[in-house]
Amino acid sequence: MEVTIAEKKPRAAGDGGGLVERLPEALLVEVLARVDVDGACSAAASCRSLYAAANAVLPALTSIDLSAFAPSNAILSRILAGNGAVRSLTVNCSLLDDSAASVIARGSLRDLSLLKCSFSMSFFVALGGACHDLRSLKLEMAVCPYTLYPCLAPVYVGCVHLELQGWITSHS
Questions:
Q1: Under a CB-based contact definition with an 8 Å cutoff, are residues 32 and 46 in contact?
Q2: d(Cα 105, Cα 100) in Å, to the nearest integer?
Q3: Which residues contact 85 (CB under 8 A, 6 or more apart)?
Q4: What span, in angstroms and rounded, lies between the C-alpha atoms of 81 and 64?
Q5: Which of 54, 61, 79, 143 has the fewest beta carbons under 10 Å from its own?
Q6: What is the rounded average pLDDT of the residues 125-130?
């Protein structure tokens, strides 16, 4: 992944900024581009300079794995905001509702893994309507998958390149 940003001069030592704020923004972007999404988000919370660097990195990621934590709709929206490049997305959906479809369903997706999900038909209608080039869909269900099969019809119709579907039933 290549992220470009205008070169920024380091601050002078006497201007009151912390050590991180004295580093060039291009260096911070390069560092955050090499860590996972959790690391970039954690770093962004620590200071304004890292927040700005994370905002430059997140929209350029092509593969995002959010399986380690369950984001809310708002957090997922912030992570994926402005990202038109993501091709592979894994999300722990246990805190998400059907409105997350507007954030998850994007034309650039090729591989999608939804863990601990219990979405209704409207979510899959949105997915089928936006993800025309989706090649792989993996679902870990928080509900019985047999009740979900009718909901998947819009995905089959809209995602004409779908090659692989996987269902895993969660017993939680």
A1: no
A2: 8
A3: 59, 60, 61, 62, 108
A4: 13
A5: 143
A6: 90
